Amino acid sequence: MSTTTTQLSPAEMLEFVQEPIRPGLKRITDNLENAAKKEDAFLSKLLNHVLQSKGKRIRPSVALLIALSQDNKEDNVEQMATAVELLHIATLVHDDTVDDSEIRRGQFTVHKLWGQNTAILLGDFIFSSAAALVSETDNVPVMHRFSQTAIELSRGALNETEEAFKHQTKEQYLNRIYNKTASVFATIAESAAVLSDIPEEQVTSLRNYGYNLGMAFQIVDDILDFDGNSEELGKPVGADLANGLLTLPAFVVIDQDGNDDVFQASFTNPHDDDVLQTAVNRVQQPEVITESYAIAHQYSKAAVAALSYLEASRAKESLTVLVDYATTRRN
Ligand code: IPE
Ligand code: IPE
Ligand code: MG
Ligand code: MG
Predict the structure, then answer these.
(1) Which residue from 100, 156, 191, 224 could staple onto 228, CB 3.0 to 4.6 Å apart?
(2) Is residue 330 part of a domain?
(3) How many A from CA of 176 to the centre of ligand 3?
(4) Cβ contact 39:47 at 8 Å
(5) How many whole angstroms separate alpha carbon 322 and alpha carbon 304?
(6) Which ligand 2 atom is nearest residue 96's CA?
(7) pLDDT value of position 2
(8) What sign does the dihedral 243-213-297-10 (CA atoms) show?
(9) How far is CA 66 from CA 62, 85, 143, 200, in A?
(10) Per the domain annotation, does 189 fall within a domain?
């Protein structure tokens, strides 16, 4: 990264990252919004609600930047990136329903406005629309990777419900965040590389880029759940422990304390706010947050290393700055 980009705020970094792919991101956003228009009034209202909300479009950005690094102007990459963003949105609708979370992207969630049943069915509809769209790429390896990812996402979400409020290991946590988040990043990078006809060993490097970026991205999400603010994030904070989940900052505490007593106390007294607050305060210690960021940085360094074979280009600069954005972001 150049010295000029190291001085940017996170918002400016994202602006720099997405600047060369604005037209493609705009077309993806238009495609998402148009998808809602084809349906009857009720479904159209639901789809509009979720598809017009402004996400950061990090996953499509990875795809478009990889294509740009190869001067690939194929529509297929945009098609696939739209499908993966839809897959991501479907998991958010389901995740908020399972977590009983009221705010997403700064607005009320589907289950809060229309109830759980509608939210589950709408999530399924969006999942299926994503699968239909990815099949339009006509690329069997890409379709295969997409279906595997849908399985991994469901596995991650199911593991989360199964492990909640129990003793949890760091290994279970790392598996969970691979399944629920890094798998999507790995897949979008790999698929963009495949659709851009990049040689096979380099496809693997780009998959590794996506994997490591995704792991860092989720670890930072988990840090922000303790250290962020809900205004900036557009979603609630402090939800993970309250939902019985141990994330990376909690495992830093467990390593320091040699036991998970402070968390088990909150899990066995789920209605006692003081016990929960004691656990939250323990995680919010500055040295815990610093150590958690140090671990996120191990993944972000691996992500940058995975780009080493790519020739210098504006797209590569964006892919590199995206990694710094992932670990400095506040939303
Ligand atoms: C939220 O993802 C879910 C996680 C994997 C942490 P994003 O932070 O990319 O959400 P949007 O798309 O910008 O809303
Ligand atoms: C990501 O994890 C969930 C999905 C992949 C849908 P989180 O549960 O931490 O995401 P947020 O914090 O609700 O966005
Ligand atoms: Mg959640
Ligand atoms: Mg989170």
Answers:
(1) 224
(2) no
(3) 13
(4) yes
(5) 10
(6) 13
(7) 54
(8) negative
(9) 6, 16, 18, 14
(10) yes
Residues lying with their CB under 5 A of ligand 3, a single-atom ion: 95, 99
Cα 218 to Cα 66, 249, 272, 292, distances in angstroms: 21, 12, 28, 12
Give the residue numbers spanning the domain of 222.
Answer: 3-320
Length of the chain: 331
Question: The domain that contains 24 carries what CATH number?
Answer: 1.10.600.10
How far apart are the C-alpha atoms of 87 and 63, rounded to whole Å?
14
Query: Of 59, 95, 105, which is best to mutate to test ligand 2, by the most ligand atoms within 8 angstroms of its C-beta?
Result: 95
Mutate to test the pocket of ligand 2, among 84, 85, 111, 181 (most ligand atoms within 8 A of CB): 181
In a domain, 267, yes or no: yes
Give the Å distance between the CA of 258 and the centre of ligand 1: 32
Q: What is the pLDDT of residue 1?
A: 53
Q: Please list every protein residue whose CB sits less than 6 Å from any atom of ligand 1.
A: 55-56, 58, 105, 181, 218, 221
The answer to whether 1 and 321 are in contact (CB under 8 A) is yes
> Domain tally for the chain?
1
* pLDDT tens figures, 2-20: 556 768 999 999 999 999 9
- Judge if the beta carbon of residue 180 lies within 6 A of ligand 2: yes
95 alpha carbon to ligand 2 midpoint, in Å? 7
pTM of this structure: 0.97
Residue 256 has pLDDT above 60, yes or no: yes
Residue at 326 is within a domain: no
Task: Return the structure tokens found at 242.
Answer: 């309250």
Q: Could you give the angle at the alpha carbon of 181 between the alpha carbons of 147 and 304, nearest 5°?
A: 110
